[in-house]
Each structure stands twice: as C-alpha cells, then as structure tokens.
Amino acid sequence: xxxxxxxxxxxxxxxxxxxxxxxxxxxxxxxxxxxxxxxxxxxxxxxxxxxxxxxxxxxxxxxxxxxxxxxxxxxxxxxxxxxxxxxxxxxxxxxxxxxxxxxxxxxxxxxxxxxxxxxxxxxxxxxxxxxxxxxxxxxxxxxxxxxxxxxxxxxxxxxxxxxxxxxxxxxxxxxxxxxxxxxxxxxxxxxxxxxxxxxxxxxxxxxxxxxxxxxxxxxxxxxxxxxxxxxxxxxxxxxxxxxxxxxxxxxxxxxxxxxxxxxxxxxxxxxxxxxxxxxxxxxxxxxxxxxxxxx
Length: 295
Fold this sequence. Notes:
By secondary structure, the protein is an alpha/beta fold. The chain has helices at 6-12, 14-24, 44-58, 91-100, 118-121, 140-152, 158-169, 174-178, 190-205, 241-247, 259-276; strands spanning 37-41, 64-68, 80-85, 106-111, 124-127, 181-186, 208-213, 229-234, 251-253.
C-alpha cells in the first residue's frame, strides 16, 4: 500500500489554502501604499520576501527591500518591517524584532502558530494557521503567504488557483525524476520563486540545484547545461534562452502557467525524486522545523 507523506498532502491542499488566504487580504494589517518597507525571513521565508518585495515595488506601492533576518540593515529608515516566519520561533527573526522594538518602526508578522513568542514582539500579526504544516519542508505555508500578499496588492488569483489544480493532478515526467542537476530561473518577482524552487529540490531530494535571474544564466551558468540536466523557468523565458539550453544538450522546462503554480510542480517533482531515492520528504536530513540557536 502506498503511504502518502505529509508533504504530498500539504502540496495538494494549496489551491484551497490560497483561496482562504486571499479572503483574508482585505482585513489583514499589511504594508500600506507609500510605506517604505523591509521584508525579512529565513530560508523559504526569505525567498518569499524577495518575491513580495519585487511585486510590491512593481505595483507602485512603495520602496520595498527583502533581507535575510540575520543580515537586515536596521540603520536604514523604514516605516514598517514585515517578518515572515512559519514557526514563530526562529531565532534570527525574533532577534530582529527585538532590535526594532522601540525604534518607532511598525512591525507586522505573518505566522502559522499563534502560540509562539513572535506574537508578543510584533505590533500586528496575521495568522495563517490553516496553512501550517507537519512536514519540515515548507510548501503550502510559503505559497499561502504569497497568495495573501499578492491579493493585498490587488492581484486576482483565479488563474493561479486553477493552474495549481492542474499542477497537482499532472504526472511528474520521468526525466525530472532521473535528472542529475537543476537550474531554476526567474525574472522580477519570480527570481525569489526560483531560489525557493532550488531550495525545495535540495531539501527533499538532496539534488544539485542552482538558481539565477534568467538573463544571467548565459553569463556563465549555462556552462553546466547538458544531457541529464534541467533548466527550469518560472515565468516567461527570455527570447532565445530555450534554444541555447537545448543546443547545449540540456532540457528546458517552461509552461504558460502562473509561476506560483509552477512552483507546485517543482514541489511535486522534489517529492517524487525523494521517493525514488528512498528519502523521507517530510524529514530532510540535518533539518528541523525551526532553527532555534543557543544563546
């Protein structure tokens, strides 16, 4: 009997989670137009922060920077810090919020667990408890945050949700399960998604993965393209890039789908690769649900 992992169940729940997150966007306390905002997180949350920062600026809502929580330059003048943390216990995020406290900068947190220290450190909190996960590997919480934030910026996620349903039901091609190496590419806001796609493949299946802005790929990284290696575009590919990868003997993957739904396809491929190698996609090697550092 085939046992479904928590990760697979959580991946499949994403369309429903995105719909619920979108419904919250009108009432959640999130960055206002015109505010200068720093968005921060660790790991997956840092990459979602990068995607949101690019989207917010492109939408004309104001200057928005994304930083790993451990590297945030707090000497700059921001109106608001938006912290993303599934667990609400990540050491670097908590330390950052403590340092911001009392400076006059508003702080907002998006988290999955309302019973964690982060709730007392932020001025406002948005709780997506319905998107919390049992798996160490983040899938639905990360994308539900982005669904919330995209909707708050005025986007309609109808197509994204429909594309995600397709991504969940389509079989994973065998060549993606067998591939030796993956390079994920993005443009604008999808550069963050490309980084997240690479992380998911590394975490779940210990794959050799890299991520780049799409226009940078021909400035060196294309040297590793070849048979058994995949270049996977999230978003619209630059002209000529697919041909260049194929000429090098590599496989180029791209679809006319919402990039967030394409990330769902990457998540599913990562799980299939984990199973093929006898790995547990719920419990990646050397990882825990939250990084809590000793004092």
